[in-house]
Amino acid sequence: MSPTISGFAAPGYETVAEAFARAFDDRPEMGAALHILRDGETVVDLWGGVADARSGRAWQQDTPSVIFSCTKGLVSILAARLVQDGKLDYDAPVNRYWPEFAAAGKAEVTVGDALAHRAGLSAPRLDLTEDDIVDWDRMAEVLAEQEPLWPLGTGYAYHALTHGWVAGEIIRRVAGQSVGQYFADLITRPLGIPAWIGLPESEAPRAAHLRVSPPLSTLWADEAAKPAPNWPYKAMTLGDALPADLVSETGGFNTQRIRAAEIPGAGGIASAEALATIWSATVTPTRGTKLLDASVIAAATRPRSEGVSVFGGEPPFSRWGCGFQLDSEARRYLDDHCFGHDGAGGQVGFADPGHNIGFGFVTNWMMGPEDQRATAIIAALRACL
User: Among the residues of 225-270, which ranges form H helices?
Assistant: First the structure.
C-alpha cells in the first residue's frame, strides 16, 4: 500500500513531487520529507510515511530527524560566518585558536585543512566508548593529543565523525560558546525553525525513529571483517562508541543520550523545512535573515579535497571545500556552483546560489550506495529549472 503524501508542489514542480512519491516504492516502513525554497519562498513542501514503524506514528510536516553528516554542512556555515565576521581565518593554523591542537606534529594544520578532511584525524587511535563521545572536553582532548594517521600534506580522508569535534572546538574557542549554542543563536532562533545540534529532552518524542535497510547493514558487516586497522571503518564506530550503521533499534543515534549530546559531525536534528530554510538563507534573504556573503561563499567553496583518499577506495568520489560538500559524481547537485552536504542513509541539504534555492530531504529509512531517492528528486528539480 502506498503511503499518503501530504503537502504541495507549486505549478511547474509537479515532476519533483512525482519523484518524491516514487521514493516510497517498496519501502512500507519509510518516512520522509522534502522542502524546497526559491528566492526565499517555499515551492515544494511534501511529507509522508511513518516516523516510527514500531508504533505506526505518521510523519508530520515538522517531524525532525537525525540528519547525520548534513550536520557538517551546518557547522561549515558557522565557520564561514566567523570568517565573514573577521574572527576566523581559513589559512591560519588551528593552534592560533586552539593551542593544544599543535601537539603530535599538527602545528601546521590550517583551519581550511581541518575543515577539508586533511588533518589526519579521520579516526581515533584509541578505542572510544559512548561515555567518551558524549563528553565534549574528552573528545577535544583526544583529538588535540593524537598523532595524525598519515603524513600531513599528502592527502585527505573523510573525517566521518571526528570532523565535528575538530570544527566544533575551533568554533567554540572563537565564538565563546558551544557549537550547539552558536547554531541556535545565529541560525535557528532568527529563522524560527526546528533544528538542533543537541536535541532537548522536551523535543525527543517528536523525533523520527531510524531503520537501516539490509544492504547497508551488509556493507558494514563486510567492512568489519577486514583486517585491523581499518581506519575508514573505525571512523564510523570510533572503537566501541557506535554501531557501524550509526544506529540500531535501540542504540546509537536512536538514543536520546546520543541525540542530546553535541556531536556536530553527525548529530544534527532537523525537519526538511528547517534544513532547506537554513540553506536558502545562505544565498538569499529568507525569513528576514541572510547568513553568508558571496565573497565568503567563494572562499569556502574553493575545492580543497577530491579524488581518491589516502586509504584508497572506489569511485565516485566526493569533493570538499572548507567543510562544504561540492557538486561531484558522488553527490550531484543542480550545478557546479551548489554547496551543501549529504548524510548517512539518504539525507541531503544544499544551496544553489544561481537559482537562490535551498533544498532539504530527510528520511528515517537508511540506505547505502544503492540509494537513488534524493538523486532522482534533484534530477527532477534540475529539469524543472
Answer: 231-237, 256-260
